[in-house]
Records
---
Amino acid sequence: QGGRWYFWQWSADSPYGNQPIRNETANVHIVPGTPNLRRALLALDSDDVIALEGWLVDIGGPSGARWVTSVSRSDVGDGSCELLYVTTLKTTERVYQ
């Protein structure tokens, strides 16, 4: 991850190439739906296995600025990230809403 962009690289002996990596990964920006979800999301460790539920959303500001979510897994570059409004976070031990 670099700024708002993410990059990948793989070794020559990897079973995965550029296309599968691009199509099966995403740069997802998380919008917690509640203060409780925000706390739970911030407390996650990098090796935690989780499931998120929610909606892909577009975000607009009072100045008219807009941030539009991607709805395709084949796009790349500017505008290809997803904005996920999280309503539920499931860990192996708990469910947060």
Note: The longest strand covers residues 82-90.
---
Amino acid sequence: MLGISAYLQDLDVEYLKKAAEIGARFVFTSLHIPEENLEDSEEKLDLLLKTCQENDLLLVPDISPVTFEKLGIKNRDMTGLKKTGINALRLDFGFDDYHELVTLQKDFQLFLNASIVDETF
């Protein structure tokens, strides 16, 4: 499984295309870290999603409750997040309810951040 990281603040479409050409299948990004300015996120996120789709890359954004604030999605609305075109999620802090994960699997391909997994989980 080969993947790369790409961030909205320095999005490089050619980098994504080259990565796909050499066999990358996943693109990790973060939609919650403080360093990532999402002020013009809608346009850049649309470009990132479109480029990933055109190059058979699965975008896997790291999310937390902060993501919804940054993207202007109210009440942690997963339907609103799905409407952006995101089909996979890497769940970071704030997603530790097992039942919620089961529900999310119906709409998203899920990846877990190892930092949120403990023995109980």
Note: The two ends are 25 Å apart (CA to CA).
---
Amino acid sequence: MSFDAIIIGAGHNGLVAANYLAKAGKNVLVLERRALAGGQIATESYGDGFTVDALHAGGGLRPDVVADLDLARHGLPSSDAKHAYISLLPGGKQLHLVADANDAQTQVSICKLSAKDAAKWPEFVAFMDKAAAFLDAAYRTPMPRLPNIDLRRDGLPLAQLGWKLRRLGGKDMFRLIRSMSMSMVEFTEEWFESEPLRAAIAAVGIHGFTLGSMSAGTGYTLMHNWLNRGGLAHRQVAGGTARIADALVAALKANGGELRTASDVQKILVDRQRASGVRLANGDEIGARTVLSAADPRRTLLGLVGALELPPEFVWQAQSIKMRGSVAKVHLLTDGSHGLPAGTLAVAPTLKYLERAFDAAKYGEVSAQPYLEITTRDNVVSIHFQFAPYALKDGDWESQRGRLEQSAIEIVGEHFPALKASIRQIESITPADLEDDYGLTEGDLNHGQLILDQMFFMRPIPGWSNHRTPIDGLYLCGQGVHGGGGISGASGRNAAKALLKTRNA
């Protein structure tokens, strides 16, 4: 059979792209190497009563994606973005924050640290909401292929984005531009005087990235995570993040698209510098006019296409994409007496603590005092462990797994003594597991670090920010392209729209 489009990967971006194409009347096939759809938003079962959101504690697709694809009709549950974000401090103290200018408990909690900071909080929340809204507009805007800008094609979208920036007003426009390149130390210093408050905010800025509180560009990553979370805390999805994938699959089938799981793509077929289909691990070949890959750019270009089909300079650029994953997950099944409150809990007491945790990863070591984020769902406690580098200086991840689990439990247990006795089963996901089981090169959840030289028109590779590749008919639609990172669906939407604008769609 031959299809209008084959999408490699049934993660949220692959399914979003497939839905836009199927809704436009295209004959679409989605191929997923695992036995279940969802990719990073899959909900995993480790036994009776032990079901977890494996990689992300929550998330939500962008509202325009939900509306365009009518996902509420296909079972997508709504989520409330204003959950509590609680920083766990020494001595049993807690800093309770909600990304709401008028939340009374937040005001009381901050005021215990600094009355000045409490008075500043509403202004900070208002600025962050404006910054996130601008970033969302930027993620909807096609990035030009520098240095060759086509003013007829690229000029109007860029002008509209510039107008949105100008409408922020002179003060906020200047502040936003400056803040993007700042470190968390610099950024939070301009807003607040209390160290625990500054560190709690900084932790969100480095969440999911191999960056420290002193790293340049973490002002931008804070805005990025604020946008995807809807504030500081994770937006947990009723029934688990797999409900997002379920709604996307239901919408795809309703639009006439097809999904095949347990279908491992081994090769993107190229004929005369044009993608012509794919070859599966079982040897089957499937033809298509267009191929879209939701896998990371390096895996797609160097693994599925192959260096021989690509220009030498482009191969070098693809090899140079910075992955550097350093995130692990520890999931605990308990008897329910763990004593942890609802919300997003963070172990990030000071800015120096965060920087030292990052220092360990820089030298190939698992942090002895990591930055942790903890969430609960019924009897399950899920711990986001950062920093645990993919490339270890000594040993391998199988030998380090026990240490990772013990460290996470010990640190959380210091704040909640009832946790240890309540544990009935432990399951962990190391950076090596992220690569082997989820196809994430170097265990990078974002398919490439969101850093200053890998953002906007430089993502994934300078000069190739419009989802296209040197292979005609091959598009990138995953986390590693503009708009990607987190659970939003922006890059999948953008890739599908870019394709639909071409004559050969």
Note: The radius of gyration is 22 Å.
---
Amino acid sequence: MRAMEVCRRLGRPAVMLGLVATLGLGGCAAFNTMNVEVSSFGSWPAERHVGTYAFDRLPSQQAKAEDQQNLEDMARPALEEAGFTAAAEGQKPDVLVQIGARWDRADRSPWDDPLWMHPWGPRWRMTPWAGPGWGWGYYQPEYTREVAVLIRDRESGAALYESRASTNGSTTGGRSLFEAMFLAAMKEFPAVDGKPHAVNVTLP
């Protein structure tokens, strides 16, 4: 089946986005990009050049070194896109970068909106031949995903730039999705906008 046919036949947008991220369906052009909600803070000195960086791990992150390494690998393209260069081994970096990521699951209750009909999950239904009653089906949970980037001056420890990016969807997301979220978090660097706003990025 061709990619465009897959796009037309798939159901919910969240499902299509997950398949694009996982399978790389290049023909689904509309789903190669995504809107990420971003908010950023700080005051990057206008005269300061973007230089070298190294990741700085919190004690809790050091305890899960393999997981944190995978996360750092996802964030590297975003830092490089912003102009930063990884410090060579033994070299003192100009800035230290702390990153984090998380996702939360929310299960919808049948009491959330009982008067509306749903294709999945518990739902309130009305039929011509019967009164209102409960129907049951599969209902996908909703996930909130978030990444955070904090950049500090290595010498003084001063926080120079902080950015957070978040998305919602029917899955926890995959590597490409989290890479895209990091790209969105750093896309406007060094500009800041503390009000959450949509940033459009292309899935890696």
Note: The CA atoms of residues 32 and 203 lie 6 Å apart.
